[in-house]
Amino acid sequence: MDKLRNLLDEFGHIADHPEETALAWKEKTGGKVVGVGGLDIPEPLVHAAGMLPVVLLGNEEEVTLANAHVEMHQCGYIRSLVDLALKDKLAFCDELLFHDCCHIVRMLVDALHTYKEGIPKAKFAYFSPLLEYETAQRYTASEMEKLKDTLQAISGNTMTDEKLSESIRLFNRIKKLLVRLYDIRREKPGILSGWDVTQTVAAGMVMPREDYAVKLEELVDLVAALPAPETKGVPVVVHGSLCERCSRSVLEEIEACGGVIVDDDLYVGSKYFNTLYKEELAPMEALLDAYLHRVSPCPTRYEERDPGDYLAEVYNRSGAKGIIMVVVKFCEAHDYLYFTAHRRFEQLGIPEMLVETVHEGAAEGQLKTRLQGFFEKLEV
Amino acid sequence: MSKVNRIKCTAKISPMMDEYYASMAHYDCVAWCMGPSAYEMMGAAGVSCFQAESSSARIAGQHAETPFIEYGQAHGVSPDMCSYAKINLGLVLMQQDGLTDQIDEKYRLNPPDLIVAGNICPSMMQWAHVLGKIYKVPVFIIDYPFAYDDSMENLLRNARYVREQLEQLKAFLLKCSGQKEYDEAKLREQTEQCREMAIYQRNISQLAQVVPAPASFIDNAVSMTPAISMKNQQAADFYKEYMNEMIERVKHGVGSLDNERYRIMWRGNFPWFKIGFLSRLLGSYDALLVSGAYGLTGLEENAGYKLVPPDGYDLEDPLWGIACGGINGGYIANYDTKWRTEFIQYINKYSIDAVIIQAPHTCRPWTLTTRDMAKRVDEELGIPAIVLEADHTDPAYFNDAQVETRIKALLETVDVRREAKARTEKVPYQI
Ligand code: SF4
Ligand code: SF4
User: Fold this and answer.
1) What is the pLDDT of residues A86-136, one digit of tens each?
2) DSSP codes, B17-84
3) Do B335 and B365 form a contact (C-beta atoms < 8 A)?
């Protein structure tokens, strides 16, 4: 158990201090660190170019300097990201690389380098949000090729198909381990806390992926060997928290009020890993395929399917009794997804509760009462 | 204290639009559209279009928005969504919930047969998705890529991409309307009308450079709807009349204000429910809005200027002109280009004394980076600027007294700077 706790704490520390890990890697290898915005930048491309991709998640620190540039009514993620840049806390990144994750990100990140000397001008790729339109798919494919060239130019390394396939296999190994960890959590509800799971996933967005894969495997084996915990609670699925980690206080409050998180559709959670790369395809095709045929719908992309149907699937396979929708306040794309999913849940009779989070924290007292009420209703 | 001398033909807009919306009832196939949806392509496929943002702006302009916003917000619409969408969805939900009789007849909506939206902001595409699910009708999105690289080579690549999508839109429209063939002659005719309209619009925009300005930028902005929604000969005739009125005024040295003392650039969309208030307020201080990157604009500084209408319309290839217009839009421009095209040109060419930037609470494209832009206007161009945090169609985010105080302070700053400048100019040169 100590060994497991130590591993979880190590992952937690890395997730909270990405700069330490990134700088140590840089010193050891002399390679470049690329701060990546959004989950859709194909990390194997960065990895295969010999660089370290670090997904930029923002953190829960108070936003101060960014207030001069970003209104309080923009999402907490972007406010935090700009603040970190202004406080030199992204200085460990040699490059900032974003795809067009959303209109908010692209506009602010494009201006970021003008705010302070030393902040690199962000590089962009435009992956069309239209996942099902053939013309758009071709445009995205050409942007991925352009991105590959950019990454080769930045790193000075040539990326062979073989090298890229190797990176894809490594990322798939990690994804499969995380899938297994989630399977175990469904089988043994309460085996890990929601926050430990979040930090475990988040560490994988930072660490040199070879090291992460080894440690993650160790962790998964340790968790697999544990007996199912005795704790009883109301099984729930947690969805949301776009672009950032789901707030620790929200996850802990869910558990303190009698909920057990049996599955999730969180950004720093299953959204990050549940789409595997198809290794049988040519490597660039595999990356495109994963972008287009994602398992979990993203509010910023456009697909015909109803996001409520996907969440209903997660709900059904996990044996949950309800879904908690964590929506980052002022994330407009997510507001639309919520509107549609909520209507679908009503049709399907799936109990759901909305939790809105702001960067400055959720209204804790009220959250507790609402969660207790929700769980009581589910237990009846 | 100046009286605002409005362009007379603007009085025609409201009845013209009412008539246009009423005519929609006679079509078999109606597309609801958001953003740049290639409106000029619809008629040739037997489809009429209903412009959703204009409809919400019109409702707000007549101060009728609140019940719809409130109904929507009570039924899952977030207060943070674009208020155009909030009004529209509130209305839709009321009708879906059987409350049509509580809605003024002129605001009632005919359900769409299809939906077309442009991807230029965080709202349009998802708003279309939601409507598609509610009405169970097909949706077509036109994707306009973010021009992070606006080299001519990349702009042309993007235009080809959009053009290809427009070819598919043709097939989509035909499938929805059931019309057998696309009426190319009709498209060419409408393209010609749009080209004519674009010439007048460019002139209207440029004539405002004259001092005193013959028309207020508010007149310009309220006149956008026919250009966006109708795109036909009636709309072209309207802009011709507007332009001619301006020319007459210029000939006789007549300005929009009797005593134009402050020339203001406006950046952002408008609080449509307060447009009269703003116009009167500014007039009371002898201030006039004369330019801005919203409305019938000229786009001279854009890399793709020659690609856009009217120059960009090729009657042999109408889709190319539509595609080029789309990829040159400010919404998808990068930060540097926005600064050049949405500030510098509208300040330098229009003898501007001050800048007002509206940051609408529920519209990110017009809000983001406005604080930085205001600072740059002041520091780099020496012109005072304020950011008004308001909204385009949600009155919850507008405070009359605050707006008046801010505008008054802005004009006082102009006075202080003028005096300071006059003093330095009077100081005799000494060795
Ligand atoms: S949280 Fe939403 S609004 Fe914010 S950056 Fe992410 S997608 Fe955009
Ligand atoms: S007002 Fe802003 S958010 Fe709303 S549709 Fe227009 S650009 Fe989009």
Assistant:
1) 999 999 999 999 998 888 999 999 999 999 999 999 999 999 999 999 999
2) HHHHHHHGGG-S-EEEEESS--GGGTGGGT-EEEEHHHHHHHHHHTT--HHHHHHHHHTT--TTS-HH
3) no
Q: Do the beta carbons of residue B272 and residue B278 sit within 8 Å? A: no
Helix (H) or strand (E) holding A229: none
Is residue A82 within 6 Å of ligand 1 at its C-beta?
A: no
Which residue do the tokens 């969408």 mark?
B85
What was the pLDDT predicted at B331? 87
* Contact with chain A for residue B171, Cβ under 8 A: no
Helix then strand then coil, % of chain B, to nearest 5: 55, 10, 30
- How far A108 CA lies from chain B's nearest CA (Å)? 7
Listed in sequence order, the residues at least 6 apart from A328 whose beta carbon sits closer than 8 Å to its beta carbon are A75, A76, A77, A240, A241, A242, A243, A244, A334, A356, A357
Q: Which ligand is nearest to the CA of A241?
A: 1
Least confident range from A62-66, A152-156, A312-316, B339-343: namely B339-343
**Contact between A70 and A80 (Cβ < 8 Å):** no
Tokens at residue B36, please? 């740049």
Q: CA A293, CA A311: separation in Å to the nearest integer?
A: 16
For residue B171, the SS3 value is helix
DSSP state of B261: -
Instruction: Give per-residue pLDDT as tens, B148-165.
Output: 998 989 999 999 999 999
Instruction: Judge whether residue B58 has pLDDT over 80.
Output: yes
Calpha distance A44→A172 (Å, rounded): 10
Query: How many C-beta atoms surround the C-beta of residue B69 within 10 A?
Result: 24
Strand partners, A324: A238, A353
- Is it the case that residue B201 has pLDDT exceeding 80? yes
Q: CA nearest A142 in B: which residue?
A: B157
Residues with CB under 6 A from ligand 2: B 53, 82, 84, 121, 123-124, 269, 363, 365-366, 392
Atom of ligand 1 at shortest range from CA of A299: 7
| 3.40.50.150, 1.10.490.10, 3.30.1360.20, 3.40.50.11890: CATH of A22-160 | 3.40.50.11890
Per-residue pLDDT reduced to its tens digit, B66-91 = 999 999 999 999 999 999 999 999 99
Q: Where are the domains of chain A?
A: 22-160
Residue with tokens 């009426």: B183
The answer to whether B195 touches B309, Cβ cutoff 8 Å, is yes
Find tokens 């004539």 and name the residue: B207
pLDDT given for residue B242 in this prediction: 97
Helices B124-135 + A332-348 axis angle, to 10: 20
Q: A115 CA to chain B: closest CA distance, Å? A: 9
pLDDT band at B300, cuts 50/70/90?
Answer: low
What is d(CA A202, CA A56) in angstroms, rounded to the nearest whole number?
10
CB A205 within 8 A of CB A272: yes
Judge if the upstream peptide bond of residue B212 is cis by omega within 30 degrees of 0.
yes
pLDDT at B315: 79
Token pair in block for residue A59: 């953190």
CA angle B242, B243, B246 (to 5 degrees): 90
User: Burial, A166: exposed, middle or buried (Cβ in 10 Å; 0-12, 13-18, 19+)?
Assistant: middle
CA of B33 to the centre of ligand 2 (A): 13
Instruction: Compute the distance between CA of residue B157 and CA of residue B355 in angstroms, rounded to an integer.
Output: 35
Q: Is B425 exposed, middle or buried (0-12, 13-18, 19+ CB in 10 A)?
A: exposed
Among B285, B264, B160, B177, residue whose Cα is nearest residue B221: B264
**Confidence check on the interface: ipTM exceeds 0.90, yes or no:** yes
Q: How many CB atoms neighbour CB B138 within 10 A? A: 16
Chain-wide mean pLDDT for chain B? 91
Q: Which residue has the tokens 């108070």?
A: A62
